[in-house]
Amino acid sequence: MNAVNVTEETLFRPLPKLDSVLFKPFLEGATKGKLLVQECQQTKKKIWPPRLISPYAPDAELRWVPIEGKGKVYTFNVVHRAFFPYYKEKVPYAIVIVELEDGIRMLGNTMGINPNSISIGMPMEVAFEKVDEEIVLVHWQPQKDD
């Protein structure tokens, strides 16, 4: 099991377990700035959240593949109450479900946006937050104009 450096900021912050069998490739990809999901090798359909068996072809192999990391807000919630001390100074903040390519929907916190300005259908892109050398979190931010 990997140890997390405990600081006042991370003491009560919920963080992913790095030894999770299902999420380990996803978390490793995030440390490299890549958004990864599983793909069924028989149907080529993307799968999220990760699974041990493809829901499309139970005998098929699953592989981790990069995806673009752009989509639109499918739904969201603005949080006004801090359930962990870490979030006390961060409320209000928004949690979004972003609909990505092939119908993948991914949940995450937002960055770089007033939570009251989020709307359904808003274009979003992946944003990575480096917590430490081992943990990088996946968040969402408004898409930048290219």
From TrEMBL:
SUPFAM superfamilies: Nucleic acid-binding proteins
Domain ChsH2 C-terminal OB-fold: 64-129
Domain of life: Bacteria
Signal sequence interval, chain numbering: none
One Pfam assignment: OB_ChsH2_C
InterPro entries found in the cross-reference section: ChsH2_C, NA-bd_OB-fold, Thioester_dehydratase-like
PANTHER family: BLR3430 PROTEIN
Name of the protein described by the UniProt record: Zn-ribbon domain-containing OB-fold protein
Protein's organism: Sporosarcina soli
